[in-house]
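Many introductory courses stop at the sequence. We go one step further.
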Amino acid sequence: MMDTLLKTVDLKKYFKTPSGMLHAVDNVNIEIKRGTTLGVVGESGCGKSTLGRTILNLLPATSGQIFFEGEDITHASKKKLMDLRKEMQIIFQDPYASLDPRMSIRDIISEPLIAYKEAKGADLYNRVSELMDTVGLARRMEYYFPHELDGGRRQRIGVARALALNPKFIVCDEPVSALDVSIQAQILNLLMDLQEERKLTYMFITHDLSVVKHISDEIAVMYLGECVEKAPKEELFKNPKHPYTKALLSAILEADLKTSLAEKTIIEGEVTSPINPKPGCRFASRCKYCTEACTATSVALEEISPDHFVACARKDLF
């Protein structure tokens, strides 16, 4: 059986604002098996990227725990974090803003190798050339600068940089959202091929359900900082339980168009503020199934069938 590479326990990340405490990530419990992909989906502002950055310790956790290969890394020392950076990497959303415009492709990819003294001289040159080959960048472009390349090639630089230190775990923070559809497919296929070749483990953050369906093994659905449903990919798409998940899935355009407009779930109402949220389900104000029980107290994720977890007070709907 595959073992758990990464796990969070009641992970929270809050930000202090003039209006109060913003609950960006609130009591998130996830597990990612070695060699698999966990897709994290939800609307913009639901805390997906903050979750990924907190897991990597790019942002300090407010409370809760993060375990990597069974070790608690929540409050790791600077020295420990330096070691962890070799094992855990990130591919950022914007393939232009995340690259230094003053550095060439070769300099960008070689930077982590130099920082960790992994290679120098001819060995460094060869390692960078191999990484360019791996991600499909022509060697003739080695001294090009980011502004001279299109979005797809820039994102390949980000992938090569993330792979440079041979990590075990990579957070993919909406890596294809800024790309054309045809380029998206190329990057997704590249990531899947690399995962198979290098036995990588991904946390893939996106708001595009068609993308997450293509690349993920399991999917976690987030709403205003909370994980409201988590299940294997096939189970989630075939048998969604949480009203928010159902609404997201009903928004996908089906090729056969058999679903009538009346059967579509339309989300209405305003998004609840994540600043000092009230007890109860945060989707309650937009949910047509809401009752008093939904607003009385918060509901934790509960396993309703093997590997299928839902946080909803209306269990009579399941």
